[in-house]
Amino acid sequence: MTLTDEEKTTSNGPAGLGVVGWLRWGWRVLTSMRTALILLFLLALASVPGSLYPQRGVDPGAVARYFENDPTKAEWLDRFFLFDVFTSPWFAAIYLLLFLSLIGCVLPRTMVHLKEMRRTPPPAPRNLARLPHHAEIEGDLASAEAYLRSKRWRVTTGDGWVSAEKGHLRETGNLLFHVALLVLLVAVGVGGLFGYRGNVLVIEGDGFANTVAAYDRYLPGSQVSPEDLQPFSFTLKDFQASYIGPGHEKQGQPLDYFAKLAVQDSPTAPEREFTLRVNEPLEADGALTYLIGHGYAPTFRITGGDGKVAFEGAVPCLVSNTSTYESECVIKVPDAAPDQLAFLGRFLPSTVPNGDQWLSVFPGAVNPTVQIWPFKGDLGLDAGIPQSVYDLGGHQNLKPLGKMTASPKPMAVGDAVDLPDGAGKIEFTGLKEWITLQTTYDPGRFPALLASGVAILGLLLSLLIHRRRVWVRVRDGGVTVGGLTRTEGGDFGEEFAELTKALEHHARAEVKDVS
Amino acid sequence: MSPDHLATLSDQLVLAAILLYLAAMIGYALELGFGRVTETVRERRLVGVGGPSDDLPEPAPAPEPASWAPKAGLVGTAAMWLGWVANLGATLTRGLAVDRWPWGNMYEFVVAMLLAAVTVFLFLQVRYPVRFLGAFVGVVAAIGLGFAARVLYTQAGPVVPALDSYWVAIHVTAAVAASGLFIVGGVAAALFLVRKEGPSRLPSRADLERVAHRVIVIAFPIWTFAVISGALWADKAWGRYWGWDPKEVWAFITWVAYAAYLHARATAGWKGKAAMIVSLIAFACLMFNLVGVNIFIGGLHSYADVK
C-alpha cells in the first residue's frame, strides 16, 4: 500500500539491464501506487469467498456438512483453500506483497519527510497576488513574523518578506498510520504463534482445569506447548437463563444468562466466586474464558438386563432448535449387561402435546420431558476407532428395541420405563444445564489494540491536516499576504481569511503597545 | 407515556418522516428541474465563504429559470427539516420505549442510519451550497425508511444478552454515523457519474467530486473506528478480536475498498471518474454488508431479526 498524495508512474520494462536492472525495475513496479491499488482490490476481492463458503476457523461443523452434502465439489473447493481463505497461501501472497509494497513506499518517504521537516520554508514568490489566496493588509513584517511564530508556524524571513509553513503533521500521520498497519499485522501473527484457543462443555456441578486434555477442542499456536497453559480451574456451581415470556413477538428470546463459578487462579490460590456472562469473560492470568452457549443435560439411571445399574449421570443434549431448545441426546451404556445399551433421546424443555406428537414451545424448562428410542447390541467401543459421544451413526451392530415410532410418549422427571425384551430399565432422574466455554490466550491483543489506536490517530492527522504555506511581502509600501495549500480539501479559504484578519489585528495591537 | 404508547408513536413518526422526506424530494426536485442551469465545468467553488468568487465566467444564455423555483426549494428545505425532526423523534421514542440504545436490530439501525445521512446533508446545507443534493438524499431517505418499515420492521423489545452491552453505544453508533456520511458521499458520487460534462442542472463534476471526497474523508476514520471498536467488543463477547465472521469480512472489504478510493484519488490515471467509480464500489460493499450479509449470509452478527 503506497501513501496518498503521491504520484509515481510505472516505468516501462528495461531493455537489457541485467539482473540488477530487472530487480530494480521489479521493486519500482511493486512499490508503485498503481500496483498498491491493484493489490488493495485483490485483497478485497480475495476476502469475498471467505464470507460465502463456511470457514474451518469459524465454523468447522458447517465445513463438515458441506463435505457430506457435496463431497466432489467440497474437495475441489478445498483444493483452492476456499474453506481456509484467510490462512491460504494465495491470500497470504496478496497481503505480503501489499505490505512489501507498503514498506517500499514508507521507507523512502520517511527519509524525505525527515529532510522536509528540517528544511526551512521556501522564499516568498515575487508576486503574491498570483496565488490562489491573497489579500492586502495593514501591518508590517515584524509583527506578522511574531504572530506566525506564536501560532506555531515554521517561519523564515528574507529581504522584505516572511515565509511560513504548517502542516507537516499530515505526512507524519500518514507514515504513522501505515507503520501502525505493519505493527498490527505483526501483532496478529504473534497472537497466532504464541496464543491458543480451547472449547469445552461443562455440566452444572462439574469442574474444569485448564489443561490440554480437558478441552473438547484445542487449537494451539505453533509455539505453544502444553506446559504454557495457565493453571487455573473452576467449578460450575449454577447456570441460570431467562427468556421473553409469551405474548411478545420475540417470545423465547433470551433476556439474560449467567453462570456462577468458583474459580481458583492456581492450584494453591484461594477460591473466588465469579459470575460469568456474555460480554463479561473470566480472566485468569492473561487467559480469558467466555460463555459461548448453553443447553440441557437430563440425568438418567440406566439398569441393564442383569438388574445392575450400568449408568447414572447427566447427558448433555445438543440443541437442535435454538428458539425452543428442543435438543437431541445420545446415551451409550457400554457397561450394561448382558447386552450393551444405547439410546437416542429428544429433550423437550416445555412440552405440549400436538395431535399424536409432542413438541417444545419455549426454551425455559417449564415442563421438561424426554422421548427415548432404545437400542441394544454391541457399541463397538473395543474396536479402538474414535467415536463421537453425540452420535450413534455407524453402529451396525445395534438393534432397535421394540417398535420405533416417530414420537414416543415422553418421560417426565421421575418416570421410569422398562425396556422391551427384558433388556433393562431407564429412569429420568433429574435435570441439569450445561454451558460451552471458550478459553483464549492471545499475547498479541494489546499490541494489536495499541497499533489500531495509533492507526486511527495517524489517519485523522493525515486526512484532516493540510500542508499550507503563507507569505507576507512588503512592496511599494503595501503589505500583501499570499497563501497556498499543497493538498486539496480543507477550509484553507476560511483559515486564510481569518489569518489575514488576525495579522492586521496583531499589527494594530503592537502599534498600540509601542505608543 | 407507557412503553407501548411510545413504541406506537415511534412507528407513526417513521411514517411521518417518510412522507416529509418525499415532500422534500419533490420540492428540491422542482427547484432543480426548473431552476438555473450550471453552464460549465469551471469552478464554482464549493469551498465556501472564503474562496475567491472572482474570475468566474458569466454563464452563457440558458433557459430562463422559473421564478417560483427557489420557493419550491425552500419548501423542500422546510419539509426536510420537519422530516429530520420526525426521524429523530422516531429514534428517540423507540429508545425510550425499549429502554436501551435505539439501534439494536436492523430496522432500528436503518432508521438511525438514514437519520445520520439526513443530518449530514442538513449540516452541509447550512454551510455550503449543496441544495442540489436534497432531492436525492430525500428520495434515498424515503425509500430507505419505507424499506425498513415494510421489510425489516421488528416489534419494540429487548435484545439478546450478547447485544445488551455498552459497546452498542460505541461500536454501532460509529457504524451508524459513518454509514450516514457514506450515503451522502455515495449520492454525490452517483450524481457525478450521471452528470455529463457540459451544461446541466446539476453543479459541476468538480463540485460533486469535492462533496463526495469531503464526506468520505470524514467517514473513513469513523468507519475505521467502528471496525476497531467492533473488534474490541468481539474480544469481550466472543473471545477473539477478529474471527472473519461474514460481517467482519465485509466490514474489512468495505474498509479496503474505501482505502482504495483514497489511494486512487492520488494515483495518476485514476483521478476523477475512476476514483468516483471506486468509491461507489466501496459504497456497494457497505450496503451489501448491511443488507446482504444480514439477510443472505448470517453469521454471528445475526442481530437483524429479519424473518
UniProtKB/TrEMBL annotation, chain A:
Bilayer topology term: Multi-pass membrane protein
Bilayer-spanning residue ranges: 36-53, 90-109, 175-196, 446-465
Keyword line: Cytochrome c-type biogenesis, Membrane, Transmembrane, Transmembrane helix
GO biological process, one term: cytochrome complex assembly
Cell compartment(s), UniProt: Membrane
Residue ranges occupied by any ResB-like domain in the UniProt entry: 33-497
GO cellular component: membrane
Coiled-coil residues: none
Pfam families in the cross-refs: ResB
Protein origin, superkingdom: Bacteria
InterPro entries: Cyt_c_bgen_Ccs1/CcsB/ResB (IPR023494), ResB-like_domain (IPR007816)
Hydrolase as UniProt keyword: no
Family matches, as PANTHER family: CYTOCHROME C BIOGENESIS PROTEIN CCS1, CHLOROPLASTIC (PTHR31566:SF0)
Name of protein: Cytochrome c biogenesis protein ResB
From TrEMBL, chain B:
One protein family per Pfam: Cytochrom_C_asm
Membrane protein topology class: Multi-pass membrane protein
Protein name according to UniProt: C-type cytochrome biogenesis protein CcsB
Domain Cytochrome c assembly protein: 103-301
Superkingdom of source: Bacteria
InterPro entries named in the record: Cyt_c_assembly, Cyt_c_biogenesis_CcsA/CcmC
Compartments (UniProt record): Membrane
Annotated Gene Ontology cellular component terms: plasma membrane
Transmembrane portions of the chain: 12-34, 68-86, 106-125, 132-153, 165-194, 215-234, 249-268, 275-297
Keyword Ligase: no
Organism for this UniProt entry: Herbidospora galbida
One record GO biological process: cytochrome complex assembly
Entry keyword set: Cytochrome c-type biogenesis, Membrane, Transmembrane, Transmembrane helix
Keyword Nucleotidyltransferase tagged: no
GO MF: heme binding
